[in-house]
Design a protein that fits this description.
The protein is an alpha/beta fold. It contains 13 helices and 15 strands. A hairpin with a 4-residue loop joins strand 4 and strand 5. The chain binds pyridoxal-5'-phosphate (PLP).
Length: about 400
Amino acid sequence: MGIINNNFLKLNESYLFQEINRRTREWMAKNPLREVLRLGVGNTTEPLTPVIVDAMHKKLNELSYVNTYTGYGDEQGNNDLRAALADFYKREYNVHLDRNEYFVSDGAKSDAGNIQELFSPSCKVAVQDPSYPVYVDSNVVGGRSGLYNSNQLSYDGFVFLNAASENGFIPSPPKEHVDIIYLCFPNNPTGAVATSEQLKAFVDYAKREKAIIIYDAAYADYIRTPGIPHTIYEIEGATSVAIEINSFSKNAGFTGVRLGWTIVPFDIEADGVEKGLLHKLWNRRQCTFFNGASNIAQSGGVAALSQEGRKECRGMVDYYLGNASIILNGIKKVGFECYGGINSPYIWTRCPKGMSSWEFFDYLLNKTGVVVTPGVGFGKQGEGYVRISSYGHRENIEKAIKKISEEL
Ligand code: PLP
């Protein structure tokens, strides 16, 4: 008889987006003449840029002829994309890594979920609270947690690094020993960005404690404030302690195309084994369980990293940041306390009058038809906040903010 992985049974029903949809549908049924304006999900809405579309068309065309057709590529990613990634980090961040340290994937979510496979179930894991749920859930499945604890609104066994308005939503490194630390900047959901000094404190901690940092930089291209690091490798010595995960989703609109990358440096050291073993193990993992990202997507990725592609993608990110600024200014005028939205597509808004996340969700929906994401869905510290997303067409964003200004 097949015996299941019991850790899966620990997973709490993730009802956040389901529950948002349920409440929205119910409201729509009761209010058939009113318009719903969705500022909830982090899904891109603007089309792929011309340089990317051309490159993907060209690749599709090559696949249409026997002389130019290609099948499987390298599991680690095609050489030209790995070279383009290495060149991009050198050019824009002055980070010099070998192309073979870059592993191309079908997106940051898969890598963020799979990376824990490299580590022992005995590892103690620290996560920011609130955070993108896959870090916690993948480690629950990997056996690094206790049961769901309804007081904590998460699982026992994790070390939660509290992000609150008092610390600018940037937690300090843990007080106790941990083995793995997940960090995400610009942060989903708070929109907070970490300075070099703040990241250095984590790198120093990781060196001291022989811990590994898993750094999710999926929103790096939204950073506009000079001096804020775009990659953990801008911090000296980070290549010996950090793995970085990134994505073409939010900067090139590849949410549906699917393409990302993970950097596992040759230099990185896990406790008690030789330098380089983690790199080798991730290579082994990818070669065993992954057959490479779509070659059409990878052609689009190379184009996105070209000088012209970068310019076009910057325009796309500027568009979302323009939306974010409209939201931020609009809701500030109404008197809401809000954070993020400057180096991030997300505006983290404190619920007024002491309302809970869900109470404010319902209040906003009933008054204005605007749908946001309850902050409590990202962790206990998210209670009392909502996340407002700037992904959407400009006219919808403007309509939503007008509604909020008029009705609240
Ligand atoms: N990391 C963070 C922090 C995210 O918010 C998201 C998507 O919302 C992802 C990763 C997923 O990226 P991808 O589309 O590449 O899987």
